[in-house]
Amino acid sequence: SHLHNFLQELPKCEHHMHLEGALTPEVLFNLAKRNNIALPSDDEAFASPEALLARYNRFTSLDDFLHYYYIGMSVLVEASDFEDLAMDYFRHANVDGVAHAEVFFDPQAHLSRGISYATVLTGFTSARQRAEKEFGITSELICCFLRHLPVPECIETFKNADLQASFKNGAVTGIGLDSSEKPFPPELFKEIYAGAKELGLRRTAHAGEEGPATYISNSLDVLNVERIDHGIRLAEDEELLRRVAKDGTMLSVCPLSNVVLCCVKEVKEVPIRKFLDVGVKFSINSDDPAYFGGYVLDNYCAVHEAFDLTIDEWSGICRAGIEGSWCSQTRKDELI
Ligand code: HPA
Ligand code: ZN
């Protein structure tokens, strides 16, 4: 779009991207070979990187995507795999003009395959250090729990000594809740979120992507989250919209993800204009850039194409993103 350079140069903060979702088909195939991981032989999508990419263009739902997402991450084995994956993301983020990124990861998806938490965290942590040194991009890590798994298993993972250490030593800033949204309402995870609050961790949860607006209100009321990931179905509840606007709770909206996963037919259907009109704060994010056909600047451009926002509106969106970030006040002051 004609605002491409302007949008590139805005000091953008990304709050909703899953590091495992930065795994491109090309890297996936290379790592499968290097780590001797067998890809499914009964699914033609895994015939080649090109076939896999073509399959990504035909996702029908969140669960259809998650099936490929979990197979994909099975090729991540060594700490260097996790480091390379995150560096691949940070390189794109740098080109797109991202100043600060708060990124998700899914420890349970690795622990269940016999990959230690230390392996995952070592790789991601060294990538974060390199990103700051090489690109000046600051970042925070958000540890997500997989809501499709039995709650007792999630609680056990939360209490795992390695995770607890990373919560207490500052390696991890906050917790999130992801994977299949329905039928796994937020209140199932009340105990984990209470424990996280006790530890002084920041808290967010995916809600209102496929699930109803009650998943948003219950994330706020029962889990005490400070942000909502996606939250597009907030638009269906006028009263809740006004409450979220009044409280200044930020949504991390992912427009291209919403289209690719068939939550909306086109970006125009994402309630961006409604959020602006009501004064709901939101940031714009890539979610799983290798799977959804775009990094963060592609999402900004798609929103601009659909809504033709003014320069002031864009500046306001970026400022809300800085203010809604979980970095230090010193870093926020640098970004504003
Ligand atoms: N929603 C839920 N779980 C996820 C997503 C998402 O958009 N991306 C990766 N895990
Ligand atoms: Zn997500």
Please characterize this protein's 3D structure.
There is one protein chain. This protein is of the alpha/beta class and 336 residues long. It is 51% helix and 14% strand. It is built from 18 helices and 8 strands. It has an 8-stranded parallel sheet. α5 packs parallel to α7. It is globular and about 50 Å long. Bound molecules: hypoxanthine and zinc ion.
- Low-pLDDT runs of 5+ residues are none
**Mean pLDDT figure:** 98
Query: How many angstroms does the end-to-end distance come to?
Result: 24 Å
What small molecules does this complex bind? hypoxanthine, zinc ion
| Rg calculated over all Cα atoms | 19 Å
* Helix share, percent: 40-55%
Main sheet record:
8 strands, parallel
Total number of helical segments? Answer: 18
Q: What is the strand arrangement across the widest sheet? A: 1-2-3-4-5-6-7-8
Order of helices and strands: HEHHHHEHHEHHEHEHEHEHHEHHHH
Coarse morphology = globular
DSSP E strands, number: 8
Q: What is the strand content?
A: 5-15%
Give the helix/strand class: alpha/beta
